[in-house]
Specification:
Layout lengths: L4 H24 L9 H24 L9 H21 L12 H20 L1 H5 L12
Length: 141
C-alpha cells in the first residue's frame, strides 16, 4: 500500500522519537562524539523539516507510474535532507546551534547513524510491530 501523508508523518515521528533518540543518546552524552544537546536539536530539526519534505514527497509520488516510493528514493531523500540541513546550518545557523558551533563531521556521522537506524527499523520493526499499517496507508494510529 502506498503511504498517505498522515502515514508518512506518523511513521517519521514514531521512528525519530524512538530509534532516533536511542541512537542520538550516546552522541549527546559525548560517548561517541564531542558535543551535547545539539544532537537532539538536530534530530528535532530533521523531524520538523521532514514533515514539510513529506508533503513534497507525497506530491512527487503521485507522478510515479506505480505511485510507490522505493528504497532508492528513500536513500536519495535522506541525502537531500542532510544536504538541506547542512546548507542552512553552515550559512545562517539553526536556532540553538550557531554556525560556528556546527561540526560537519560529527553531523554526518550522527545523521548517517540515525538515518540507517530509522531505515532499517522502517523496513523491519515497523512491519513486525504494526503489520496492519501497510493496509492503512502507513498509519499506525
Amino acid at each position: 500500500m502506498t503511504p498517505t501523508l498522515l502515514g508518512r508523518w506518523q511513521t517519521r515521528i514514531l521512528l525519530l522519537s524512538t530509534v532516533g533518540v536511542l541512537i542520538t543518546l550516546p552522541f549527546a552524552l559525548g560517548i561517541i562524539s564531542p558535543g551535547g544537546g545539539e544532537y537532539f536539536l538536530i534530530l528535532i530539526y530533521i523531524a520538523i523539516f521532514g514533515i514539510f519534505w513529506d508533503i513534497a514527497y507525497q506530491y512527487i509520488q503521485r507522478y510515479r507510474w506505480d505511485c510507490d516510493w522505493p528504497a532508492v528514493l528513500q536513500l536519495l531523500a535522506g541525502i537531500w535532507e542532510a544536504v538541506f540541513v547542512v546548507a542552512i546550518a553552515t550559512t545562517i545557523g539553526l536556532p540553538g546551534i550557531p554556525k560556528e558551533k556546527f561540526l560537519l563531521g560529527s553531523f554526518f556521522f550522527h545523521y548517517s547513524s540515525v538515518w540507517l537506524g530509522v531505515f532499517v527499523a522502517s523496513q523491519s520493526l515497523m512491519r513486525i510491530f504494526f503489520p496492519r499499517s501497510r493496509f492503512r496507508g502507513g498509519q499506525w494510529l
